[in-house]
Amino acid sequence: MRPLLHGLLLSLLVVARAATADEEVVRTLPGHTRFDLARPEINAFVEHLVSGGFQRDEVFALLAKAEPQPKIIEAMSKPAEKALQWWEYRARFLTAERVDAGARLWREHRELLDAIAMERHVQPEYILGIVGVETFYGRITGRYRVLDALATLAFDYPPRADYFRQELEQFLQLVHGGELDAEATLGSYAGAMGVAQFMPSSFQHYAVREGDSGRRDLWNDWGDIFGSVANYLQQHGWQYGQGALAEADIGTAPEPALPSSVTLNDTLGALRTRGMQVQTILDDATACVLIAAPVQAGKRYRVGFQNFYVITRYNRSPLYAMAVNDLAQAILTRTLADDAP
Prior knowledge:
Number of helices: 16
Strand order of the largest sheet: 4-6-7-3-5
Distance between the termini: 85 Å
Number of strands: 7
Largest sheet: 5 strands, antiparallel
Order of helices and strands: HHHHHHHHHEHHEHHEEHEEEHH
Strand content: 5-15%
Radius of gyration: 23 Å
Structural class: alpha+beta
């Protein structure tokens, strides 16, 4: 069979499959575009899901609803963690409004946060620090359909296509299981969802049901939201009661060589041997990592411990982890001041 004819027949077959499951989803509305479901990589993805138990028609029908989003590709090339210096990044999140809102949320849900802290062994201020940085406590959860975002990155963003195809698969699993609605679920340009901004794989593995909604709800149920964040941190090795960061002064020591990634490849004793002073009571055997934290006036350094490393499992950027830590500490300070007689 000639290639052109073969391709035409394949395209017709794909449309027919989608229409069999849902006749409406293959109609292209004015101003809307759809993915070419005859693309080899999309067919390979569908076959992979079919081998895992999906119905072929079901997958084609879901993908037929996805719309490519070129703006997402643009956003992926300029995340704030790469575009900003630490003092600029910090200023975005350490505002009086955000600290006040975090302290107010703690007061409103004190019993719930205390119960989750005891159950999951994670301090409430860090739970609030995460959701404060991620979404301003639910004010900014994303405006993209998660189906569109993940399909765009899975099929039109080669640098991380494998990762986003895995996330798209997890999302479709959640849709298939009835937990999420493929057409209504909104999130970030990268496909992160809810107040906690969980990617679909994190939703699958770490989201918990603490509330009474009958399903895991990371948009509206604070029990599920707080419990899921705490569970994520706990499962990644959170050490209850220990801080995440300490200030460091290199003194007259030579300019330090910094690691290329956040790994606990040093100890406090080794840093002190090299002439650095670290503001902590932790002993010399404590594993740590030296981090640059520049201010406008010059170079500054901080030291991250196990809990800092755990926060970077949520988001790999050390700027993000420092912002979460600093917001958490500011919320704690404000809450203690409010509680003082």
